[in-house]
Amino acid sequence: MFELIQSGGIMMFPLILSSIIAVAIIIERFMSLRVGKVVPAEDMERARKLASSPRLLDAQIDELRSSSLMGRVLATGLDSRELPRHIMKENVEEAGRHAVQELERYLPALSTVITISPMMGLLGTVLGMIGVFSAINTAGVGNPQQLAGGISEALITTVAGLLIAIVTLVFERYFKARVDGYVTTMEREALRLIEITNSNRKTPQPPSAAARPPAVSAAAQAAAAARPVPPARGGNAA
Predict the structure, then answer these.
(1) Transmembrane region positions (predicted)?
(2) 85 near 198, Cβ under 8 Å?
(3) Can you tell me the distance from the alpha carbon of 137 to that of 120, in angstroms, rounded to the nearest whole number?
(4) Mind listing the pLDDT tens digit for each residue in 32-70?
(5) Are residues 129 and 158 in contact, defined by beta-carbon separation less than 8 angstroms?
(6) How far apart are CA 156 and CA 4, in angstroms?
(7) pTM of the model
């Protein structure tokens, strides 16, 4: 393995470094993009119950916000539950944009590795071919086997660069598809939360017992109608 790396020339070292960076990002993204850490089902159910609750405490919202990315977005909507619907929706969308940035962290670095790895491999091959033709110019074509071995060694960097780019591309596409699925779930749950909050805001509350007028029975109404009206004071008798 070491002989293979050594035969690839100086460009093998940046290729190895780029592969180490890609592997580190892939492991980190696998750990960060777990379903239980991004869109846990219990956070969705908790947010719906809190949106339907007539009395909501700040501690409950803070607990939801610290649980997951989904909880952070839904907690923003619960914080804005007293505001008009369009303002509440704007706040949720802003929190969703921040969540998407968190989900897509380090993915641009993977795209950079995918782009530059084949280029570095091609550069290593070109440098190797330059060395081969320089040797031919100096010593001539004395040994064809040695010449073929030099060319094969020059192509090692191209193979390494393409291999790194292909493997990294597979994981990068996988992570992007996973992020898109999470974003769709967040949008659906955020709209559902807005609708629940808005419907609870429009639902009229029944009047309390203290505010209700006292009921008047039919007998009391009849007695009041039969009661004689006293004459006005200061009037002359007819």
Answers:
(1) 6-27, 106-136, 148-171
(2) yes
(3) 26
(4) 999 888 999 898 898 888 888 878 788 888 898 888 899
(5) no
(6) 8
(7) 0.75
Coil/strand/helix, residue 94? helix
Greatest mean pLDDT range, 8-12, 26-30, 154-158: 26-30
Residue at token pair 């030099």? 150
Q: Where does residue 212 rank: exposed (0-12), middle (13-18), buried (19+ CB within 10 A)?
A: exposed
DSSP assigned state of 214: P
Check residue 155 and report its DSSP letter: T
Beta-carbon-side half-sphere exposure of residue 162 (alpha carbons within 13 Å): 7
Q: How confident is the model at residue 236 (pLDDT cuts 50, 70, 90)?
A: very low
Burial environment of residue 32 by CB neighbours within 10 A (0 to 12, 13 to 18, 19 or more) = middle
Number of helical H runs and strand E runs in the chain: 11, 0
- The residues, any chain, with a CB within 8 Å of residue 72's CB and separated by 6 or more, are 65, 66, 95, 98, 99
Distance CA 71, CA 37 (A): 10
Q: What is the pLDDT of residue 6?
A: 67
Q: What does the domain layout of the chain look like in residue ranges?
A: 1-200
